[in-house]
Amino acid sequence: MFPFVRQLQLTADFAKRAGARLAGIEVPKFADTEATFDELKARIAKTVDFVKTLTPAQIDDSENRDITIPIGDQRQSFQGQPYLLHFALPNFFFHATTAYDILRHCGVEVGKRDFIGPLAVA
């Protein structure tokens, strides 16, 4: 299993990569140099800032966009919707959950609401 820092880096990577690929733009590159909580928070903020730049018009009709990604030494091709639903989102949540679980294992008092956020009441 990757350590905590790498889990968070990968969580951010899946968010920015999915957005960029669905928008049909170049994926931003972030150096994997974070070593502190402040640096990890900055990476998350930088990822959120990037995702916020994407517009609905860039994502519209991406469900059929051809997306080819490197996986190890191989290349894997998807259409947009299966890429998002069956690859990008599951990987995002896997790494986010694993980072959360590492924190809990190390005694950090975080709970379900810290992971999923407050209930939205309509």
What can you tell me about this protein's structure?
The chain is mainly alpha-helical and 122 residues long. It has a single domain, classed as dinb family like domain (Four Helix Bundle (Hemerythrin (Met), subunit A), Up-down Bundle), CATH 1.20.120. Helix content is 59%, strand content 10%. It has helices spanning 4-23, 37-53, 56-59, 80-105, 112-116; strands spanning 66-71, 74-79. The protein has a two-stranded antiparallel ribbon with strand order 1-2. The longest helix has 26 residues, at 80-105. The chain is globular. The mean pLDDT is 95.
| Domain count | 1
Reported by name, the CATH topology is Four Helix Bundle (Hemerythrin (Met), subunit A)
Average of pLDDT: 95
Low-confidence stretches: none
What gross morphology would you assign? globular
Secondary structure class reads mainly alpha
Q: Keywords, please?
A:
single chain; 5 helices; 2 strands; 122 residues; two-stranded antiparallel ribbon; 10% strand; Four Helix Bundle (Hemerythrin (Met), subunit A); mainly alpha
Offer a concise description of the structure.
With 122 residues, the chain is mainly alpha-helical.
Topology:
Blueprint: H1 4-23, H2 37-53, H3 56-59, E1 66-71, E2 74-79, H4 80-105, H5 112-116
Antiparallel strand pairs: 1-2
